Amino acid sequence: MKTMNFIYNTELDYKDVFIYPQYSEVESRTLVDTTSTIYPNKVVLKVPIISANMDTITGSDLAWSMAQQGAIGALHRFMSIEDNVKEYIKIGNNFAFVSIGVNGDTKDRAKALYEAGARFFIIDIAHGHSKMMKETIDWLRTTYLDVIVMAGNVATLEGVVDLYKAGAQIVKVGIGPGSVCLTKNVTGVTRPQFSAIMECAKAKEACNVKIVADGGVKEIGDIVKAIGAGADAVMSGRLFANCREACGPTMNGKKVYRGMASKDAMKVIKDEDKLPTPEGASIVIDEPIMDAAEIIKHIQGGLQSAFSYCNAKDITEFRNNVTFGLKR
Prior knowledge:
This protein is an alpha/beta fold and 328 residues long. It has helices at residues 60-68, 81-90, 106-115, 131-143, 157-166, 183-187, 193-200, 220-229, 263-269, 292-309, 315-321, and strands at 17-19, 36-39, 43-45, 49-51, 72-73, 98-100, 120-124, 148-154, 170-173, 210-214, 233-236, 250-251, 254-258, 282-284, 324-326. 33% of the residues lie in helices and 17% in strands.
């Protein structure tokens, strides 16, 4: 009988850790700079947050609002190519990521979006550490030499390094942590997000790669922990699911939010009799609808306050100073 592979590690989620307060010489949190660069001279975020490329989250309205607040949106791809181009053009001179997959209309969609002016691309599939992902990165980078590519999702150091070597400048980390993701329930495959970020961020010691933590954020403090663990930015759908600009429908005055592997989402792009086992859920957000600007303001304020607790005036100082504790 083959010996079973088993990794004996302590794996941590955001809820498992806390940040120790420290002596601080930061006189006011308003003096704290939350700017993060996820690609030199190209993608500089005043607030290191990205709205997720989900069909109930980021359309042109939210992408435009994100840009106005110094953050960035990631347009979803679950629409026709023609509509995708129209949505991108609506954003005007504001920058946003656009999304493609690894099969089907991938090349046609990428070509149309590139010709419309898009230069920031996300190649987005559930299991990013794969042959098809590496081939798609290589095709996109060699076909369009001036694009910036974010690829994912992965949850291991090897995954980050492989996608970087394939040509991705930014790698998205997160397998199964999302609030409407059922991958961990359906397949048993997942990795606690805090540990995934800590390990994946080690790639930055040897590679000129940036890390985006995707999923699992339930509150602003989770964003702080992700940044402290090594993420350069955080992607979230849940935090923006109840915002006015989110493209999800409303039901009885409340926003609908769904995972892209949910049955409701997959029915939009596939015949119902050909649907795979769903790995996502669809829920109604039981919270008041807010403007994106208000949500981003709260995120920035939380980051500034956290940094000041750690005697840090920017992200670099915060990462150098932060001390995590383990909850028992």
